[in-house]
Amino acid sequence: MNKRHIIMIIAIILIVVLPLMLFQGKGEDEGYFGGADGVAADAITESGYEPWFEPLWEPPSGELESLLFATQAAIGAGIIGYFLGYYQMKRKMESK
């Protein structure tokens, strides 16, 4: 193995092991991995805000809500990827 491979292996080990060592035993109670959604919901609830209207439809389960969100993200990523590829190929064909 040459020096480059050794440096890459050390870097991968540090990237994987270091976060596990830093966050070991620290959970959501201590502020790690809580996310911004929970903090925002708490701030809105404490301010006394009342929504103007109710949603037209709420998914019956969290799994279905996650599925719909993932489907929406996949469709959006596909559209963005299509146009990026289209314009890149268009530029490549014009340069020939």
Could you please describe the fold and organization of this structure?
- This protein is mainly α and 96 residues long.
- The chain has a domain at 59-96.
- The protein contains 3 helices and no strands.
- The chain has helices spanning 3-22, 36-47, 62-95.
- The chain is flat and about 60 Å long.
- The mean pLDDT is 85.
Keywords, please?
96 residues, 69% helix, flat
Total number of helices: 3
Structural class: mainly alpha
Shape: flat
Count of DSSP strands:
0
Task: List the secondary-structure elements in sequence, H or E.
Answer: HHH
Q: Tell me the helix content.
A: 55-70%
The mean pLDDT is 85
Poorly predicted segments: none
Portion in beta strands:
under 5%
Main sheet properties: none
- What Rg do the Cα atoms give? 23 Å
Task: Report, as a whole number of angstroms, the end-to-end distance.
Answer: 41 Å
Topology (elements, then pairings):
Blueprint: H1 3-22, H2 36-47, H3 62-95
Brief rundown of the structure:
This protein has 96 residues and is mostly helical.
